[in-house]
Amino acid sequence: MDMSQYKDLFISEVREHLQTLNDTIVALEGEPGDHGKIDVLFRMAHSIKGMAASMGYEKMAELAHKMEDLMDKVRKEVFGFETGIADLLLEGSDLLAEMVRGVEEDGKAEQDISGLVEKLAGFTPLSAGGEGEKQQGSAAPSHGRKVDGTVEGKTGGTARAVREQGDGERSQKTVRVRTEVLDNLINITGELVTSKNRLANISGKSGLRNLDMAVFDLSRQVRELHDEILKLRLMPFGALADRLPRTLRDLAKKSGKDVSLRVSGREIEIDRGILDEISDPLLHLLRNAVDHGIETPAERLGRGKKPNGTIAVEARKLKDRIIISIADDGRGMDPAGIIAAALEKGLISEEEGHRLSPRQAFLLTCLPGFSTAREVTGISGRGVGMDVVRSSLQSLGGNLSIESEPGKGSQFTLSLPVTISIIQVLLVGCTPLTVAFPVDKILRTLDIKREDVSVSGRRTVFELGGESIPLLSLQRLLGLPLSTGKGPGIPAVMVEIRGRKAGLVVDRFIGQQDVFVKQFGRPMNRMKGLMGGAVLGDGQIICIIDPAELLR
């Protein structure tokens, strides 16, 4: 029987099982007596074995079988779950993942499994002085063992149920959809928005009431279609966050540190495209927290801290933004040391260094080539990483902020849009261009009386409700030729940056519109304050402004 038609389904399901396997192994190190998790591990290995055997991948089935046998001994309490078992099972999971990759690339699951199969079959616990001792070492501590909030019996931390080959009925209420199909649907819907805007433009010039009503109905329907497609693309943050415990475990063992991980906000839903793009930045920040942030147990004890460090990852929704923070209770960051390192590498001048606030100094770590590491390790110190984090966030219309206190720890905060495909914008004139602001980034629009504007020191301000608010020229910020307004009022867009209000002067307000956001390529993607572009109904290409980045 030709099984190739089932290959994609096989790859997808085995990867889900392996993710659950990894999550549960790490969780069991903190709770070795949890029989529910032990049963999950046994079922995952059993399911992979059955699926691989049915597809004819004999080596994969054999390896999964030996992992199943080892877990069966734990389940029957022949011996307890310990770090040596975790190491072997994680090694097996990695090898199975490599074999799945081989199936995906050339249809073969060929790997040398003999050495690992022998170790799995011959394992004896640490207390017996056998294989467990060889795996872990006689006095090696178990690092990264306390992981709060890990999932039980869930597939990759998502709401999808664990699918077991032959162990239950498959639900017919859900279907699998390839991600490229969803991407195509979003792109088609985006083009529909552009076409709808063209029709609205034609309708506005025709004066035909029936056409106006038809375009109005079409606008509503396209919006509803877009919202429904977005729901298909939304994934819980847990789909990404639940990979972190395994990663943290490996990093902690390499660095000789004892680190706990707390994750909250797993249920927060984010567009799949954004989730994919922030995966590497999040891992960069986790590596930095382990390598640069958390001290060794001896260092922590010497500073009056508990030997076990903590890293907390939190996701939350704030209006139409997703906020993800990565905080550690480690050594913190020294602004003066960062400035000195940047000066030494020639990244800033002495004059610039003197003007920097601590928060601005922390952002120097995002400059290409910046590093304070004394040596290159297997984790970090190569002068790459934070610049990638910041540029990745900027390409998504997001931003990064850093807070730290020497001796107490650091917090890195990522602010991201829920989605970056179709958004509502306010179109404004900024001679000679038409530009747009995302509506969710605007506090209000104003027509400021000229008598309410004054100069305070080196700043132009205006009075509103007893408050003096800075007034800035959008043309000047964008490097455009300045024009002189002659009307009785000054049109301005009020925005808020880090809790402080500012007014951006424009030439005129044009109106609101839904637009399909397209990311700029080089060199436009490197311009400060631009989150992308869009095509209007009349064919005009506009830039979409990110005021937070523009005023940084």
Secondary-structure map with pairings?
Elements: H1 7-30, H2 35-55, H3 58-75, H4 83-106, H5 114-121, H6 131-136, E1 147-148, H7 179-206, H8 209-233, E2 234-236, H9 238-241, H10 244-255, E3 259-264, E4 269-271, H11 272-277, H12 279-293, H13 297-302, E5 309-318, E6 321-328, H14 335-344, H15 350-355, H16 358-362, H17 386-395, E7 399-405, E8 409-417, E9 422-430, E10 433-438, E11 444-449, E12 453-456, E13 459-464, E14 467-473, H18 474-477, E15 489-497, E16 500-505, E17 508-516, E18 530-535, E19 541-545, H19 547-550
Parallel strand pairs: 1-3, 3-5, 10-19, 14-16
Antiparallel strand pairs: 2-4, 5-6, 6-8, 7-8, 9-10, 9-17, 11-15, 12-13, 13-14, 15-16, 18-19
Helix pairs in contact: 1-2, 1-4, 2-3, 3-4, 3-5, 7-8, 10-12, 12-17
Description:
The protein has 552 residues and is an alpha+beta fold. It has 4 domains: 4-140, Up-down Bundle (Four Helix Bundle (Hemerythrin (Met), subunit A)); 179-234, Helix Hairpins, CATH 1.10.287; 236-417, Heat Shock Protein 90 (2-Layer Sandwich); 422-550, OB fold (Dihydrolipoamide Acetyltransferase, E2P) (Beta Barrel), CATH 2.40.50. It has helices at residues 7-30, 35-55, 58-75, 83-106, 114-121, 131-136, 179-206, 209-233, 238-241, 244-255, 272-277, 279-293, 297-302, 335-344, 350-355, 358-362, 386-395, 474-477, 547-550; strands at residues 147-148, 234-236, 259-264, 269-271, 309-318, 321-328, 399-405, 409-417, 422-430, 433-438, 444-449, 453-456, 459-464, 467-473, 489-497, 500-505, 508-516, 530-535, 541-545. The strands form 4 sheets. It has a 6-stranded mixed sheet. A 6-stranded mixed sheet has the order 11-15-16-14-13-12. α2 packs antiparallel against α3, α3 runs antiparallel to α4 and α12 packs antiparallel against α17 (386-395). It starts with 6 loop residues before the first helix and ends with a helix. Residues 133-171 have low confidence and may be disordered.
